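User: quick one, fold this
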Amino acid sequence: MKSVTRTSSHTTATSHSPATRCTASWWLTPDLSSVRTARRLTRDKLTDWGFDDQIEVAELLVSELVANALDHAHGHVRLGFSAENGLLRCEVEDENPQLPTMRTVDLDAERGRGLFLVDTLSGSWGGTPTPRGKAIWFELPAFAEAEADSFEAFTPMAA
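Assistant:
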């Protein structure tokens, strides 16, 4: 089944200057192809907004959050972005009201590292109850400060 999205978008200016507020959101269907769709939407929207330096990290974190939402909740998932005052924020909303907790996993575990990635690579993250369930969000600075160092935190996991 192909993932279908409904798009709404609002951009109040064409660049990401401090006075600019950009928002976009999409509803994703509850199937695994939505992870790929979410990555594409992330890349396309951040490219449109000129946030090229945050695309790779944002794609990875969006993939983790959308996959978690599809795995632990039922129904459609909403992917949303906003950018304002030098801060990029992503939210993934699902219909499960239970907020996730970061857990310790064994080195050989195949699952359970998603929130570790979000915690390591984002400036901040959290969860918020919503009328539908919950939204898990993360924030990134509009411009990466040290691109080459972004993935060095994963060296111990590669063993």
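User: anything notable?
Assistant: Confidence is low (pLDDT under 50) at residues 1-19, 146-151, 153-159.
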